[in-house]
Structure formats: structure tokens, C-alpha cells
Amino acid sequence: MTLTEWLSLVLICIMGAMSPGPSLAVVLKHSLHGGMKNGMLAAVSHGVGVGFYASASLLGLGALMTKLPTLYNVLVYGGAAYLAYLGIRILLAKPSSQAVKVEQAIPSQRAALQDGFAIAFLNPKLAVFFLALFSQFIDPENLTLQVGLIMCLTVFVLDTGWYLLVALLTELSKKRFGFTKANPLFEKLLGMIFIALAVRVVITL
């Protein structure tokens, strides 16, 4: 892989990471509710999920997904169901005291890790995307371990880096504009956004 090809890969990965969708909504959710640390945990675990599909695509999972539409559909519907679950959980959540929020700090960090990874893992479109993307830069028959590692690390670092930046900017915005307390109206809107994203995933299948 030449430097020009690698820079092209970087540009495409950045554009893909920055495109709004369920991943952005999940990182924003945890950044707003749990603070910058939770947002960053969601960002890192999401990067791991994306890196998994990048690696798996090099090993043939992307091609397998195209040959097994049932498996592909199951994962897509699973992702939509998970988004709907997140939205319903937000809509049904009841205001809690500050003491309860402190007690739930550790579980919320676990939830951030879980949600970040799940929203990537339950998106098999990533496998097909990386299959199409990587085929533009490499010949599978002549793929070396070094080139494969470079490509997968590029995907992981760029995806994780972008969502880490999102978590940081969200925290700065909260402090700048005083978003330090939960807003019931905003919470309901966020829940509806997750449900709308779930519907969009199913419709665009």
C-alpha cells in the first residue's frame, strides 16, 4: 500500500465515521447522561466493534455476509431492536435523586461500554462496507499481515478518535451552555430519536 492509497483510505474512513447515525446518537447519549468519561468509554468500545468488522472483512466475513442474507438480516434487525430498546428505556426512565445517580455511576460505565460495542457489532453493513472499501486498495490473494494490520489499526484509530472528540466537545458544550441538569423534554426527544433510527434501519434494509 502506497502513501497515497493510505491517505485515500484515511479520508474515506474519516467521512464514514463523521456521518450521523446510530453510533453518534449512542456516544452523545452517554456523553450527555454520564459525562465525558462514559462518552469516551462508548467511543472506545465502538471503535473495537468497528475494528472487529474491519479485521473480519479481511478474513472473509464480508463476503460471507453477502452469501448469507438471513444472517445479515438477523443482525440488522437485532441492531434495530437494540436501538428501539435504548429509546424505550429513555422514554420510560423516571427522574432519580442525585444519590441514586452516584450509586449507578459504575453500572452506567458498563452500559456505555456495552452500548458502544453493540451498536457497531449489530451493524453487519460495516462488514460489507469494509469488504467493498478494502477491495479498492488491496488484492486479497497478495494481502500481507503488515498491510492488514495497518488497515485495521487505521480504521480503529480514526473511528475511536472521532468519537472521543465528540465526547470531549459534548462535555465542553455542557459546561459552556450550562447543560448540567437533566431536561425531561430533551430526554423524551432523545428517546424518540433512537426509536426513529430503529425504524430507519428497518426501512432501509
Account of the 3D structure:
This protein has 205 residues and is mainly alpha-helical. The protein has ten helices and no strands. Helix 2 (22-34) runs antiparallel to helix 7 (105-121) and helix 5 (69-92) runs antiparallel to helix 10. The longest helix is centred in the last third of the chain and has 33 residues, at 145-177. The protein is globular. Residues 97-107 have low confidence and may be disordered.
Largest sheet, in brief, is: none
Mean pLDDT: 83
Overall SS class: mainly alpha
By DSSP, the count of extended strands is 0
The number of helices is 10
What are the secondary-structure elements, in order, as H or E? HHHHHHHHHH
Indicate the radius of gyration in whole angstroms: 18 Å
Distance between the termini: 33 Å
Low-confidence stretches: 97-107
Q: What portion of the residues fall into strands of 2 or more residues?
A: under 5%
Measured as a percent range, the helix fraction is over 70%
How would you describe the shape? globular
List keywords for this structure.
205 residues; mainly alpha; 0% strand
Question: Briefly, what is this?
Answer:
With 205 residues, this protein is mostly helical. 82% of the residues lie in helices and 0% in strands. The chain is globular, with a radius of gyration of 18 Å.
